[in-house]
Design a protein that fits this description.
Layout: E1 15-19, H1 20-29, E2 42-45, E3 52-56, H2 59-62
Parallel strand pairs: 1-3
Antiparallel strand pairs: 2-3
Length: about 60
């Protein structure tokens, strides 16, 4: 992958936002279907840290705009 994602330890915030591009790369590496609904957000909970990451196309949620 071009960049590392995820979190090494659970953050104080309850949830973190990620890009759909990262989600697609991650799913591709896992051999999963790349058909991603751009109108929906997808939540994945890290099995290591328990941190919830919400993948979204809404740039304002994952960038400090």
């Amino acid at each position: 992958m071009v960049w590392k994602g995820g979190v090494e330890k659970r953050l104080k915030i309850v949830e973190k936002y990620g890009t759909l591009n990262y989600l697609a790369e991650w799913q591709g590496l896992r051999g999963e279907d790349l058909n991603i609904d751009l109108s929906e957000e997808r939540e994945i909970i890290c099995s290591k840290t328990g941190m919830k990451v919400i993948y979204t196309g809404n740039v304002e949620k994952y960038c400090n705009v």
